[in-house]
Amino acid sequence: KQWYQRRVRGHGYMIKGLERGLLGTCVGEKRRLHIPAVLAYGKIGDGKNVPPGADLVYDVEVIHIQKGTIPPNIFAKIDLNKDKLISREEMGAFILETGRTVTLRGQSEIDNVVNEIFNLEDINEDGFVDLSEFSGPKKSKHDEL
Fold it and tell me: In the structure, how many helices (H) and strands (E) does the chain have?
């Protein structure tokens, strides 16, 4: 068992299972969260400590809750044609547009990154990431898709 204290951000900054498992918690509450791989790091793991296909168990205690700012709606920024589905092409364009190619070398590397993202996010394997599958920030306070 590893014990450590961590700040939890929410709004799509954590794995889906942890975010869902913490919904409705109160200060002082303790929970054991059993998170299936599909709501954690999926078929590819995290590349460091979590192997592919691993289910996770977290023992959590809520020490403090602080209201934060609502992050920008990243889903809407990626979904260029506003069909509420993110395609591989839209994801690749977003990666290029946001400058996340600093360490990448060419289109084949961008394709590899998109493939890794889709391995994690495209849960139903239909070739698109829909709103329910997307683990990043989805909806701002007054943002309609």
Answer: 4, 4
pTM of the model: 0.55
Q: Which of 33, 35, 54, 32 is nearest to 43 (CA)?
A: 54
Query: Residues 77-134: pLDDT tens digits?
Result: 999 999 999 999 999 888 888 765 445 556 667 788 888 889 888 989 999 999 888 8
Q: CA-CA distances (angstroms) from residue 94 to 53, 101, 110, 115?
A: 27, 10, 10, 14
Distances (CA, A) of 24 to 29, 137, 140: 10, 19, 19
- How far apart CA 37 and CA 126 sit, in angstroms, is 18
